[in-house]
Amino acid sequence: xxxxxxxxxxxxxxxxxxxxxxxxxxxxxxxxxxxxxxxxxxxxxxxxxxxxxxxxxxxxxxxxxxxxxxxxxxxxxxxxxxxxxxxxxxxxxxxxxxxxxxxxxxxxxxxxxxxxxxxxxxxxxxxxxxxxxxxxxxxxxxxxxxxxxxxxxxxxxxxxxxxxxxxxxxxxxxxxxxxxxxxxxxxxxxxxxxxxxxxxxxxxxxxxxxxxxxxxxxxxxxxxxxxxxxxxxxxxxxxxxxxxxxxxxxxxxxxxxxxxxxxxxxxxxxxxxxxxxxxxxxxxxxxxxxxxxxxxxxxxxxxxxxxxxxxxxxxxxxxxxxxxxxxxxxxxxxxxxxxxxxxxxxxxxxxxxxxxxxxxxxxxxxxxxxxxxxxxxxxxxxxxxxxxxxxxxxxxxxxxxxxxxxxxxxxxxxxxxxxxxxxxxxxxxxxxxxxxxxxxxxxxxxxxxxxxxxxxxxxxxxxxxxxxxxxxxxxxxxxxxxxxxxxxxxxxxxxxxxxxxxxxx
Length: 505
Description:
elongated; 26-stranded parallel beta sheet; Immunoglobulin-like; 2 domains; mainly beta; six-stranded mixed beta sheet; 10% helix; Pectate Lyase C-like
């Protein structure tokens, strides 16, 4: 009786296993059973032609209740657009006709599909939309598609560029993409024309031993940025992420550099200036922005600098670090709201510990941020070497009020103390959105910087080249109501069109 019981139990188990295998190996032929996709469209944003894109992926789910078999998965247009596809570990290769057969998706299971793009040259000045489809054909005859779309943009690709004679970069209609970096040799000058954009790969930057002239204009700015045009997340473009390229370094032999109407962002160090002869002009920066750096926006050792109408914002280390030398700053905004690390540096740092401070004058400028104190001063350790050759005039500074003998070096300063409100710095500006990484450092209507600059020393025009009024504002940007902004924008556009006509003549 016991043996009979065991025999029946074995039969039942084997029958269950066989039935289970039959269930697993059965595939539906019903037209009502279909695949489900995590997305119906893969967007690869804008890519440079001939340059491989980042990899995107999507999931293919089977929620039908039965197994589903694809008799064919194919790239609809072959490789005409340059898409590359891997389906569940199988590459849709040219040798296979950009297709594969027999891809199975079991009930309640899924597979993953990976997509890349290396688009061909489109022989145009503007980005060209390219598309293709991945077609899934089930045994039932049902065809399902996932759309692939991107914009391909022809660019001038440069690798390990050495400027050993006077040269001009002028590429308004077609971007410049740099790999390996740009080196300007001693005795040579590189001029970058208005409206030019240069995209630097992650390993690239500019090393200047000679001279650099970034000659942007109001409305025709130069842009220096990283080469990632895609998104890290749906809400976050790589262009909003720091550390995308190496930045600019001016070496000891470099003098008489000019950076005007230029936007530098997404770097490690925005600008690094090596020590030099303080009696000779090293660098003039006007009407420019250095934003979102994984190091410093500007760090300079014992150099002669002139900085006007500039924005230095959101850096892991100090927004500006002046170590000795001679520096003249006027109508600038230093704002430290770096979002990626709470252990961020200060908005403004200067020191005479290593190099003597010939003079530092900072007028009509905002120094603010999240921290209680956004100004760090390091004087010489040797009392005899202290010069105290600095002056802040008509500035707003987020630091406790100076009550020591050094107070004479802070004239007409509004001290933005933490006790006032933790949001004081934020309220200066139109937008500080650290969650979505959206920033607008133009003045808000409630900022105490409005009408607070010294009319006698303030610059005549602001960061965008807009004329300041008779009661100028502190910081890089003059405050205007939206209606006034529109009027000034229209005037600037008319002037630009007129200047373009003159150039054509």
